[in-house]
Amino acid sequence: MNSNQKRCKGYGLLDGSVDNISGNLCSNRFRVLLFLVVCLFPWSLYLLGYIELDSIRTADDMTLSKNLLNADVKGFLINTQGCKIPEMNPFDASVKAFVSKPDMMVCNKNIPPLFDSNLTSIYLVEPALKHYNISNSTELTCCYKSFWREDPKGSDNDKQMKFSENCTNIEDFSAYIIDEFIKVTCDYETKQIYEDYFAFVPKKRNESIDRSDRLKPNILIVGLDAVSRVNFHRQMPRTLGYLVNKLGAVEMLGYNKVADNTFVNLMPVLSGHFVDELKQTCWPNDTVRFDDCSFLWNNFSDKGYATTFGEDCAWMGIFNFVKRGFGKQPVDYYYSPYSWITENAIGNDKDFNCELCLGGRKVYSTALDYVSKVVQTMAIDSQPHFTFFWTVSLSHDYLNYPSLGDSTYYNFFKRLKDDGLIENTVVVFMSDHGIRWGDIRQTYQGQLEERLPFVYIVVPDWIRTEYPKSFANLKRNSRRLTTPFDLHETLKSFLHVESLGKEKVTVDYSSRSYSLFDEVPANRTCESAEISAHWCTCQQSVDVNVSDASVIEAAQFAVGYMNDQLRGYAQCVKLTLDDILNARLLYHTEKEIEKGNDLKDYTVTIRTTPGEGVFEATVRVKNNVFTAVTGTVSRLNLYGKQSSCMTDFHLKLYCYCDSLLKTF
Question: So where are the chain's domains?
Fold first, then answer.
């Protein structure tokens, strides 16, 4: 090998044998030319739109270049070969009119709670006595009863509780509690003047581990219902700033929902399956309880984790709304029945679907306090835990209400960090979808927001350090199309943390789901991710005149589809098309959908009678023939009691009860 050949080899411009390379081929002039070609050609291709920017790797593949994450994506959140999702301004002119500051919640007519609790006890809040007109505390007597969940029978809802017969006197206005749930009552001058409820976290397992055993990181998933990524930025900037700047959270910019509402978007997270797949295996219909289905908490329980599942506004909860819940208690700590009972007993300031207050406390704040108790108790006992908690009351019904909870959520996460409670905890803060109704949903940005909920993932520092490539993949995937199925695979990976350091021999590029610690393919499309066109935010689209013949045909097809779904339900009136409010044409490439077919999707927003229901449907045209509604038909306005005669949770969106016509 001559000197010029050696220099070529040293520059990394030649691979393998260089014996046949002539000396003059590696002249200075040639090296410069070859260097320019090798280094600049990929960038020229990118500028021409042929390759994705973040597919260009640095020499050290163990870290992800900040330049790649902060790259100019030319107006797109996701800008890959398979998907382009546009960036959105939270205060864009098209939605700004719908953003406002809501009135503060007023709990219990501003009368504060008389009792409060810590991890193990309840105690009197003396400054509150004056609000109950108590001038002589010696005349005040208080006691508590324990209560517990009982397995529901027959068609009973999953909210069955049994109370102890005896009411234990609260001596000196404080008491050490060994029970999980208690009811407190107080009498003053022979009249009951106070009722309250408290939840505790008594020890139920003996699976404590050495604090240095990091191979069992805790899992803490906190959900905030119906908040898009953009609306989270809009409404909760303080919480956002703390997550990103203090906890180092990774924001999943391309997290796309796969179905309509909470239940059908969380089943992929918790079980790894679509609801229709569960119906084939463990949950055949709405009257069957969910005991035969396997969820993530079952997997972690088998590994010795203490498990918690809870939600507020539980009457319309994940497993409860027009469903039967569980027969046997599904987790070690099950908050939902407690929520249901207590909100019925002392809930107040109800605003549409949910009680906003529990006595003198905000419902969502009470729920977060319980989660804090769980995390603190598990830390004290050195008990690994899997905690999944879903908060609904703050955000389910109104676009702007999340702003009222910004400080509370900020303080929740800050306390956990400041107290050292999440050092070995994977934290996922997430939503299921954006707001699904209201005027904003009839804008194009509102439509996109509804399909793109927020997800933030925080991993312990030691995982970032010991598995840098996995963490680099997580950051890279923040700019890829991702789904609830991917989140399921990601959470499962913590059952065997050591697997994060193992290279995959082969990658299935047609898979429906990937762990976010593996690289999600840049050519992933909605089709390969099994996101129907109706929910897909990757397609390019244009406005279409509502008087266009194809739009009218698409609208009529959508109404016909809804009536077909209601066939056999005599209690529901046949719907007719009243008006077409707007329409968009979505474009697909042959590669993205079906090679060789002429495919178009029309997304139409329509109003029907009776009931003035506003719906959004995506109708597929294949070879100039309208063939199917993709996904489901979305309801954009509230149906209230219009569908009270229907028990199927899907069909409640469409049904207008015949009995309502007979009342006029």
Answer: 3-51, 110-422+462-485+492-499+514-524, 540-661
Tokens of 352: 């549409």
pLDDT digit string (tens) for 350-362? 988 999 999 999 9
CATH architecture of the domain with range 110-422+462-485+492-499+514-524: 3-Layer(aba) Sandwich (3.40)
**SS3 assignment for 76-121:** EEEECCCCEEECCCCCCCCCHHHCCCCCCCCCHHHCCCCEEECCCE
What's the whole-number mean pLDDT along residues 549-570? 95
Task: Quote the pTM value.
Answer: 0.83
Q: Which residues pair with 630 in a beta bridge?
A: 618
Q: Check residues 500 and 479 and name the one with the higher pLDDT.
A: 479
Pair 304, 207: CB distance under 8 Å: yes
- Nearest partner of 248 among 429, 375, 466, judged by Cα: 429
Distance of CA 142 to the CA centre of its chain: 41
For 540-661, the fitting CATH number among 2.40.10.10, 1.10.8.60, 3.10.450.10, 3.40.1790.10 is: 3.10.450.10
- Closest Cα to residue 199, out of 163, 148, 152? 148
pLDDT at 483 > cutoff 70: yes
- For 219, 555, 562, 637, the CA distances from 576, given in Å and listed in that order, are 48, 10, 10, 17
Instruction: For residue 126, report the phi and psi dihedrals to the nearest 5 degrees.
Output: -60, -40
- Rounded CA separation 457/476 (Å): 13
Chain centroid to CA 93: 27
**Would you state the pLDDT for residue 631?**
85
Strands 333-334 and 540-543: unpaired
Q: Which two tokens stand for residue 529?
A: 């991710």
Amino acid at 373: K
Give whichever of 502-506, 510-514, 537-541, 652-656 has the largest mean pLDDT.
Answer: 652-656
